[in-house]
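TICKET: design request
STATUS: open
ATTACHED STRUCTURE:
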């Protein structure tokens, strides 16, 4: 008996559309991370890029449980004295809701070059329209 390992030439990534309208951020981000990793594919291999492309629409209509809009903060530091910055979730959603979803999904992916390749397959849009309709239509035809 030999263990099956897929070849890169055999892998054909699909396209999936996720509507974020009314979805909770963490639950949606975990399902997106599973799709990007390719965990549901029968040809899953943890060392290869086996996941699908994910298009997220309506990112500005996310729902948050509890008081996260007021109590959750995103922290960063430039490395210089006085370079500490923190942004409240409500302000981050007002300025750029796309970045909020990308940040949540990035934390659930592997922290190496494979994880960065997976994150490149994530396309997030604040509104209901996206420029990937031809890829999704081509997938449905085949």
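STATUS: resolved
RESOLUTION: sequence designed for all positions
ATTACHED SEQUENCE:
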């Amino acid at each position: 008996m030999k263990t099956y390992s897929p070849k890169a030439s055999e892998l054909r990534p699909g396209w999936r559309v996720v509507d974020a309208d009314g979805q909770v951020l963490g639950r949606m981000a975990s399902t997106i991370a599973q799709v990007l990793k390719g965990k549901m594919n029968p040809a899953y291999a943890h060392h290869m890029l086996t996941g699908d492309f994910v298009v997220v629409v309506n990112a500005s209509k996310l729902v948050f449980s509890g008081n996260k809009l007021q109590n959750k903060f995103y922290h960063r530091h430039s490395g210089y004295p006085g370079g500490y910055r923190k942004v409240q979730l409500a302000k981050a959603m007002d300025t750029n809701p796309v970045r909020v979803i990308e940040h949540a999904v990035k934390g659930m992916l592997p922290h190496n070059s494979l994880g960065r390749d997976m994150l490149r397959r994530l396309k997030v849009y604040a509104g209901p329209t996206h420029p990937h309709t031809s890829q999704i239509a081509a997938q449905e035809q085949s």
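CLOSING REMARK: Residues 13-129 form a domain with the Ribosomal Protein L13p; Chain: A; fold (CATH 3.90.1180.10). The mean pLDDT is 95.
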